[in-house]
Write a structure and sequence with these properties.
337 residues; alpha/beta; Rossmann fold; Dihydrodipicolinate Reductase, domain 2; 2 domains; 8-stranded mixed beta sheet; 6-stranded parallel beta sheet; 10 helices; 14 strands
Length: 337
């Protein structure tokens, strides 16, 4: 049984909490949040861009509660520390948890800066513990199937791809931290990075990166990125959160292979659609289980079997971060570290 302590009970902290509760090999033993209402089980203030927004009171019986992350790390018997704090705090507490001998699940992105990401990787290597960053798209139904298509050359080589991820502005976050560029990195680092991850997972690190977009007070709210590969492959990715509050969340991709086009669009259906060059249309119904649940299950399995996660590594997470920071630098004409 893996004993879990969750630090930060916001949208993702709540999501991870629910995922661990359904895993028979995990037991939540502690949570920490500076909001005293949350450590009493009143999570009514938690918002998000996916779901109906209704959060019922949570029964925390048998779970120790702490007001600070340090208290949980130092005074709980958790084997695994799950960090769902604002991005700029990831490095501080991931490093503290690793140094205390804990395994760590860290929400994406791995850190706010490249130097902080490297510090986490260094601490992880010294610790000999398990570390995984929550790049859930690698586990999301549909995306995982496309990865198999690419690996197995099911439809030949991928030639061109388009990714799109849109949402309303995340003004629901605690202390409005997501709208604070210094803490979150804006849309590019918080939301668009999912599609950066899809690009690197499917096709590898691009050889050329171009970016256009909308910048508000040095915060990227809309990015259109182009990724070019020396083998001729091109991928485009759009991420934005400057839409009206009534605009539905949507993540989508269209990938052109030698012999087919594969399409997914969450706002339309939970299906993968394959358009074959011979005119045949194939529709695959996807399971309802989320990528979040799958990534949590995978990490718990890695810990119980004493193996390092291989689907997404800390180095993968740093590659994604560095690409996002390069795009931010292009758009804001500033140096990103």
């Amino acid at each position: 049984m893996v004993k879990v302590g969750i630090i930060g009970i916001g949208f993702m902290g709540k999501t991870h909490f629910e995922c661990y509760k359904t895993n028979s090999n995990a037991q939540i033993v502690a949570i920490a949040d500076i909001n005293e209402k949350k450590i009493t089980g009143d999570w009514s203030e938690i918002g998000g861009n996916i779901g109906d927004g209704k959060v019922k009171p949570v029964d925390l019986t048998g779970i120790k509660t702490f007001k600070t992350a340090d208290d949980l790390i130092n005074n709980s018997d958790a084997d695994l520390i799950d960090i769902c704090l604002p991005t700029h705090l990831h490095a501080e507490y991931a490093i503290k948890a690793l140094r205390s001998g804990k395994n760590v699940m860290c929400e994406k992105p791995i850190a706010r800066t490249s130097s902080d990401a490297q510090k986490i990787i260094t601490a992880w290597k010294k610790s000999k513990k398990k570390l995984m960053v929550g790049h859930c798209i690698r586990f999301w139904p549909g995306y995982d199937i496309v990865k198999e298509y690419i690996t197995n050359t099911t439809f030949g080589k991928p030639r061109f791809a388009i990714f799109r991820r849109v949402s309303t502005a995340p003004i629901w976050s605690w202390d409005n931290w997501l709208m604070d560029n210094n803490r979150s990195g804006g849309c590019a680092l918080d939301m668009h990075i999912h599609d950066i991850d899809a690009v690197t997972y499917f096709f590898g690190k691009p050889d050329t990166i171009l970016a256009n977009g909308v910048v508000t007070s040095n915060r990227v709210d809309h990015v259109m990125a182009t990724y070019k590969y020396d083998n001729g492959m091109i991928a485009l990715a759009e991420g934005k959160w400057e839409t009206p509050t009534c605009f539905p969340f949507n993540m989508a991709f269209w990938i052109t292979f030698d012999t087919a086009v594969v399409e997914f669009e969450s706002a339309k259906s939970n299906q993968l659609v394959i358009y074959h060059n011979d005119g045949k249309k194939e529709v695959i119904d996807l399971p309802g289980e989320t990528g979040w649940q799958r990534e949590i299950n995978y990490f718990i399995d890695c810990i119980t079997k004493d193996k390092q996660p291989g689907v997404v590594t800390p180095m993968d997470a740093k590659v994604n971060l560095d690409i996002a920071l390069k795009e931010i630098a292009i758009l804001t004409k500033t140096k990103q570290l």
